[in-house]
Here is the input.
Amino acid sequence: MAQNFFDEPYVVATILNRVFNDQSPTYPVFTKQVAMAASNGINAFALSYGAAFAGLTEDQLSTKLLGNLGVLPNAGLQTALRDYLVSVGKANVGIVALQLGQILSGLEQATGDLAAFNAAAVAWKKELVDSYNYSSNPANSWSGPPEEEEQPVTGVTLVLTAGDDSISLTAPEAKFKSTANNDTFLARTAGLLATADVIDGAAGVDTLIATLAAGSTVAPQLRNVEKIFITAGSGAEFNARGATGLQELRIDAAEGPATFSGVPLATVVGIQNSLTGGALTVSFSGASGPTDAATIVLADATGNDEIVVANIESLTVRSTAGTVAATTVNQAKISAAQAQGIAILGDQALTTTVTGTQVAVVDATALTKALGLTLAGTNGVVVSLNAQAAHKINLGAGADTVKIMGLAGAEAKDINLGTSATLAASAIEVTGFAASGTDSIQLDGAKGTVKAAPGSTELASIAAASSLLDATALAATTAGANRAIAFRYGADTYILVNDSAAALGVNDSLVKLTGVAALAAADWASA
Here is the structure.
């Protein structure tokens, strides 16, 4: 157990993110950092975090840390910290940064000479709280939070050359000099970004935009470059083994298969725009244990895309809007041979085929739009959904379990009672359901919802209705309020979850089991 509040892993991670980078990581990155701090110890984690900034001088580190703490200008303090780093060694800068963040947090009501830091301490503590609230929120799993009070400062835009470029804060020529703000490095012509290039973005949130030639492999040395967007020719490979501080790595477009290799586990990888055939293969560095976790993001993926991830046991997939307004549904295949659990979340509809022999759980309860999911090569999966959209699920081999939360609730998607066709389109549809003891479905309706027990005569009347809409309406009144009823209509079986009104209404929920002729009582449950 931590000895005090400021030794808690989540506080340590928040402090280091703010002191070194002046930013708040996404939820997946933050949770990974907290786990590492708890597992390895806060000192070891701080040392590891600081090691990414070993390329900076003591003077640069002093300026970076004190600037992000909000206590500059203060020439005396800046010189004192520089000299202290020389004394203890830059290898310990992670611990020094942590200590500085902890000390400043306690100066809110300091007296004497330290009273000069009162205002900075107040601002710092608010910054830590705001940062933690952002990073600990599962909804924040891609880009950073919008700054309401402080807009990011734009740095310089530098264009790489055909030679061996060395870009840093201390470069002698302006065309190679980065800044402590948000810089952008451009290599839009294939061949400009090369393995021999060295780029140090220094402070700020820096971005590299590059194009790789077909068949090329590029592994530049990158420090403090937080975001990278790659346009890749067919067969191109970007190797991130020399990248430190990398937070987001996205393929912006590709003419065929492409590869990201040597990617740090904490880096969020994504498809920003559609690939023209082929797949993006992602290889994470350090993924060798039994519980490795990684996050991928899909934006503007329109059907030809596939992302292949190896050696990751826990995979988070975020579906979000990109830059193309017309794209309302991301479409991409996900192949994850070692994945045991896949979490799907986000605010953009997703149609995907998940392939993986080890997949046991697909949790899409945090996805707020429709999911079209097909399981391929699986053997018994638990699929969890919410009722906020008309999901379409195609089950695979083995004994699958489908869990649907929030049916007939306030946040459930309304069913469309205009016609039988609109009603069917607004239902949650499950295909490939093997009844009679193989697959199962668990429905979570409003509090107090229980299964109805209609008789054979009542079920026959429902089945004989002239339309699906009439059959569902009859099923509702047969079941009664706060009841779930299973009935057959045509070649399919339906389950209606009724709200607090007995009559069929838009707030009820409908689940369709395509091609299921009969559903045994043990095949489904309602709570």
User: Anything to note?
Assistant: Residues 462 and 471 are 5 Å apart (CA to CA).
